[in-house]
């Protein structure tokens, strides 16, 4: 095995072959980008809904209705005066609307408080683009046709779907631009060289585009769903992890240039030394993200598979293309801080990181106790945490559909804009009439009507009279489901029902996936380090970082930013990426500690490793934290929350856990840290 690896390293770093490796990487990336392109997503209405849950079954049954693919747009008319005197004009406005969907004339219903009126029209909904274009045209026509003093807004399922599509329009391009800019700035600051930063940025950028397009092809090939945010998150992951790997490799290369005249030999040695940590890190992340394939949410499975593809591509480009690209240039690429033969390496220098290590070495027990106390205090917010966001809190900037729905609820029954949907696999009139009667008998149901029928399926819309997203609304859905269960093959969906099912499904995912992530990462570390105790300590330290980050984030989003809670998917996604990526920094530190311990013993080895890796790991951690913080430029609050938790957790891992806690534990345990492995004299 060693000989093939040596051949690959010689090819990548050789004087006559390095340029071939760069050319192959560029051709591979260009071939994927130009030749394959992005696969067709083929989105379905159930992609974001949990498999096997009642609301999902209802949506799937709806697809059997023979009606053309449409979505209901609720038009809300409001005025500061009396709306009843303008009903005739409003009816003419609605009658003049051409939505492209045939159906009975739309009605205009005034509110009891005489300040608002509503109408419901259907718009084409075969694709998200159709909905967006139809709603945009509808809003434009209403703006021109609405009487003086009357404001017209569009909400309902079509309005919300159109606004969601609109806020994501161009979002991935924006995210990519922000991510690349942040990485470029931080690389420039890290290297303080006008040239060096361009090489890793170019390689990682090529890896990102290759991974994004290759991932969609893999997802399509395996029939796995993905959504608008998948590629955006993937770009953040590839840029973050890929740049981290690049920082580690270049740091090792700089050290080797201080001991070897030939940059090709220096790079070959650097690749061999850095590859162990990079491959270990990549394997840990891949194992972690693949656990998402067990999620009941199809798009979450897609994110897991896409992330695995992205990490593999990032590691491959950093280990096979970046070394070749760097050795094509001389030492001057590091200007104005060119490394010279004979200079002392990072491990032996009296750096700031070594001075911190010496302080920790003087009182390791005190530092352990103090660090754990601080992390526990930060994690206190977990005792108050609540999961779940209202519809109005889903977007960073509230779109028209949400604000209109809130205004509509002031004048009409709360569930008018987006009713609870009951779908039954029958057209039998007596059975349908009985179901309607039973539903109307519930106190929380204001009205029930047959909204679609055909193909052996009937759809009922039940308007709730209670406050949306309240305990009463959830209780109403449970009562509706109890009534619906008395009719065979009858399912309940709609916003309240879907919210209940998504919350239950998220809890199920956390229960199944979180322990599995820990177990797999732990086993992977045991294989990498050939130790039991060290992996347990490293994983426990990352869990402590996660708990502290989630506790602080809860306080940040609720007490400062005013949100009611965290999205149910935040704990799972942030835990996954924090454990998988946070362990990276411990891997970088501990693999270097093991290397140094073979010469100097474990206690001195961890101090030398801290000195050698302190700068690069800190730079990598700050960069990764900043990259995930960029998720805040996407329009969904859930992504901003995930980015915030990961950002805080990575900073804690980098600046506190890796710098103080782990070295203090290693210094306290000494050789016992590697139990049952021994760093024997034969290893030294």
UniProtKB/TrEMBL annotation:
<feature type="transmembrane region" description="Helical">
    <location>
        <begin position="511"/>
        <end position="529"/>
    </location>
</feature>
<feature type="transmembrane region" description="Helical">
    <location>
        <begin position="303"/>
        <end position="329"/>
    </location>
</feature>
<dbReference type="InterPro" id="IPR004869">
    <property type="entry name" value="MMPL_dom"/>
</dbReference>
<feature type="transmembrane region" description="Helical">
    <location>
        <begin position="231"/>
        <end position="253"/>
    </location>
</feature>
<protein>
    <submittedName>
        <fullName>MMPL family transporter</fullName>
    </submittedName>
</protein>
<dbReference type="Pfam" id="PF03176">
    <property type="entry name" value="MMPL"/>
</dbReference>
<comment type="similarity">
    <text>Belongs to the resistance-nodulation-cell division (RND) (TC 2.A.6) family. MmpL subfamily.</text>
</comment>
<dbReference type="InterPro" id="IPR050545">
    <property type="entry name" value="Mycobact_MmpL"/>
</dbReference>
<feature type="transmembrane region" description="Helical">
    <location>
        <begin position="195"/>
        <end position="219"/>
    </location>
</feature>
<feature type="transmembrane region" description="Helical">
    <location>
        <begin position="360"/>
        <end position="382"/>
    </location>
</feature>
<keyword id="KW-1003">Cell membrane</keyword>
<keyword id="KW-1133">Transmembrane helix</keyword>
<feature type="transmembrane region" description="Helical">
    <location>
        <begin position="569"/>
        <end position="588"/>
    </location>
</feature>
<feature type="domain" description="SSD">
    <location>
        <begin position="210"/>
        <end position="328"/>
    </location>
</feature>
<feature type="transmembrane region" description="Helical">
    <location>
        <begin position="167"/>
        <end position="188"/>
    </location>
</feature>
<feature type="transmembrane region" description="Helical">
    <location>
        <begin position="274"/>
        <end position="297"/>
    </location>
</feature>
<feature type="transmembrane region" description="Helical">
    <location>
        <begin position="643"/>
        <end position="669"/>
    </location>
</feature>
<feature type="transmembrane region" description="Helical">
    <location>
        <begin position="17"/>
        <end position="37"/>
    </location>
</feature>
<feature type="transmembrane region" description="Helical">
    <location>
        <begin position="609"/>
        <end position="637"/>
    </location>
</feature>
<keyword id="KW-0812">Transmembrane</keyword>
<feature type="transmembrane region" description="Helical">
    <location>
        <begin position="536"/>
        <end position="557"/>
    </location>
</feature>
<feature type="domain" description="SSD">
    <location>
        <begin position="539"/>
        <end position="667"/>
    </location>
</feature>
<dbReference type="InterPro" id="IPR000731">
    <property type="entry name" value="SSD"/>
</dbReference>
<keyword id="KW-0472">Membrane</keyword>
């Amino acid at each position: 095995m060693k000989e093939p690896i040596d051949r690959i390293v010689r090819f990548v770093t050789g004087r006559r072959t390095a340029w071939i490796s760069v050319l192959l990487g560029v051709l591979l990336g260009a071939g994927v980008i130009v030749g394959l392109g992005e696969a067709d997503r083929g989105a379905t209405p159930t992609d974001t809904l949990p498999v096997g849950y009642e609301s999902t079954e209802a949506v799937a049954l709806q697809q059997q209705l023979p009606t053309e693919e449409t979505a209901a747009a609720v038009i809300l008319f409001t005025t500061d005066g009396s709306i009843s005197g303008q009903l005739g004009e409003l009816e003419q406005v609605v009658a003049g609307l051409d939505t492209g969907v045939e159906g009975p004339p739309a009605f205009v219903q005034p509110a009891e408080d005489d300040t608002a009126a509503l109408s419901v029209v259907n718009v084409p909904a075969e694709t998200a683009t159709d909905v967006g274009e139809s709603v945009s045209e509808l809003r434009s026509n209403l703006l021109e046709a609405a009487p003086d003093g009357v404001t017209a807004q569009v909400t309902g399922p079509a309005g919300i779907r159109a606004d969601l599509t609109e806020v994501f329009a161009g979002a991935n391009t924006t995210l990519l631009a922000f991510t690349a800019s942040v990485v470029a700035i931080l690389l420039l600051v890290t290297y303080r060289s006008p040239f060096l930063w361009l090489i890793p940025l170019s390689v990682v950028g090529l890896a990102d585009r290759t991974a994004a397009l290759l991932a969609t092809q893999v997802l399509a090939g395996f029939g796995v769903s993905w959504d608008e945010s998948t590629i955006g998150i993937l770009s953040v992951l590839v840029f973050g992890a890929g740049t981290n790997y690049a920082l580690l490799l270049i740091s090792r290369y700089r050290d080797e240039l201080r001991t070897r005249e030939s940059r090709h030999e220096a790079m070959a040695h650097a690749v061999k030394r850095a590859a162990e940590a990079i491959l270990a890190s990549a394997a840990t992340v891949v194992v972690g993200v693949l656990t998402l394939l067990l999620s009941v949410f199809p798009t979450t499975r897609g994110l897991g598979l896409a992330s695995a593809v992205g990490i593999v591509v990032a590691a491959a480009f950093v280990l096979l293309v970046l070394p070749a690209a760097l050795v094509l240039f001389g030492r001057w690429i590091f200007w104005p801080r060119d490394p010279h033969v004979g200079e002392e390496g990072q491990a032996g220098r009296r750096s700031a990181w070594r001075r911190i290590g010496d302080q920790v070495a003087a009182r390791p027990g005190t530092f352990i106790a103090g660090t754990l106390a601080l992390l526990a205090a930060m994690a206190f917010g977990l005792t108050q945490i609540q999961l779940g966001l209202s519809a109005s809190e889903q977007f960073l900037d509230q779109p028209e559909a949400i604000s209109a729905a809130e205004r509509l609820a002031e004048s009409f029954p709360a569930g008018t804009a987006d009713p609870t949907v009951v779908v039954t696999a029958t057209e039998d009139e007596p059975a349908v009439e009985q179901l309607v009667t039973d539903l109307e008998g519930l106190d929380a149901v204001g009205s029930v009507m047959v909204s679609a029928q055909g193909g052996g399926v009937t759809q009922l819309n039940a308007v709730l009279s209670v406050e949306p997203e309240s305990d009463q609304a959830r209780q109403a859905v449970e009562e509706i489901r109890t009534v619906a269960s008395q009719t065979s093959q009858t399912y309940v969906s709609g916003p309240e029902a879907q919210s209940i099912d998504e919350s239950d499904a998220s809890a199920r995912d956390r229960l199944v996936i979180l322990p599995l992530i820990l177990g797999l990462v732990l086993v992977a570390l045991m294989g990498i380090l050939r130790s039991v105790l060290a992996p347990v300590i490293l994983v426990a330290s990352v869990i402590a970082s996660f708990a502290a980050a989630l506790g602080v984030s809860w306080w940040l989003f609720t007490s400062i930013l005013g949100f009611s809670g965290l999205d149910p998917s935040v704990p799972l996604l942030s835990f996954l990426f924090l454990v998988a990526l946070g362990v990276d920094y411990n891997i970088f530190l501990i693999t270097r500690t093991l290397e140094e311990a073979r010469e100097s013993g474990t206690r001195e080895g961890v101090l030398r490793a801290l000195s050698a890796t302190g700068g690069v790991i800190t730079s990598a951690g700050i960069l990764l934290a900043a990259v995930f913080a960029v998720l805040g430029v996407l329009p969904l609050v859930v992504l901003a929350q995930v980015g915030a938790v990961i950002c805080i957790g990575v900073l804690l891992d980098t600046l506190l856990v890796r710098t103080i806690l782990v070295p203090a534990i290693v210094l306290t345990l000494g050789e016992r840290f590697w139990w049952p492995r021994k760093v024997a004299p034969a290893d030294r």
